[in-house]
Amino acid sequence: MAAIWCFCSSSLYVEAVRKIDQKLNVTNATLVKVPFDLEYWQEVAAEKYPHGLPEPYSDDPTQWIFHGYPAVSSQQLQVAVARLLGYRWPAEEDNSMQLAAEARDLIERCRMLDGFSNNDGIILPQPDQLQMTLTNGCGMIFSNSTVNYSTTGLLSGISGMDASVTVFMRW
Asked: Is residue 62 part of a domain?
């Protein structure tokens, strides 16, 4: 498996696929036509991963294996709001899922945020709850009236957004 991973994650794989098919929508049938030098890639894998492939881990909330902890997420505010609405990621719900120890630790840390959730999926504008979730989940101190949220990057990039979590919650 490590040999296949090394090959498929290399630029050589992309080049080999494009030699066979230049279309944007490359099919599964094309992907399996790519020549594969097993011995070479086993050597590469043995050098790169002497103890085997690392356990699965992701800070991206769009990934199945995401741990659900806002502080280290690539999208802290969105994760905090999702948690506030009662959403849980598959990795949090499936104890048998293969994950890195670091991901398991973060899943455990998520338990302290469960008390801020509204499990019926309906949330009224509750900036205080969101601030508590962010404070506990990200280790940041927020004040609705004084903090410029764009400096934390949480509301940056949202068109028309000012510095108020209250406005965000009503948006």
From this structure: no
